[in-house]
Amino acid sequence: MSIRTKLQNKEHVIEALRRAKFKFPGRQKIHISKKWGFTKFSADEFEDMVAEKRLIPDGCGVKYIRTRGPLDKWRALHS
C-alpha cells in the first residue's frame, strides 16, 4: 500500500497505518520513503532539479531533461 501526503500530515498517516496494520494477517511494516512523491528522485534532488529546470511537470510525474542533446531543444525548453 502506498500513500502520498503533505509533510504536515506525516504523523497522522503513520498513526493511521499503525492502527490499520493490525487488520491484516502476518507481519506488516511501515516504510517511509525518502523519495519525492512517486518519482525516482529524493526530495533534496527534486527541489534542486526543478530550480535548474531539469525536471518538467508531466501529469502526476515529471520529465527528466538530460544535459546531452541538441542545443536547440534545450533553448526551446528554457526560453
Automatic annotation (TrEMBL):
UniProt-listed GO biological process terms: translation
GO cellular component terms given for this protein: ribosome
Molecular function, one GO term: structural constituent of ribosome
Transmembrane segments: none
Source taxon at top rank: Eukaryota
Signal peptide: none
Family matches, as Gene3D superfamilies: 3.30.60.300, Ribosomal protein L10e/L16
SUPFAM superfamilies: Ribosomal protein L16p/L10e
Protein's recorded name: 60S ribosomal protein L10-like
Source organism of the structure: Mustela putorius furo (European domestic ferret)
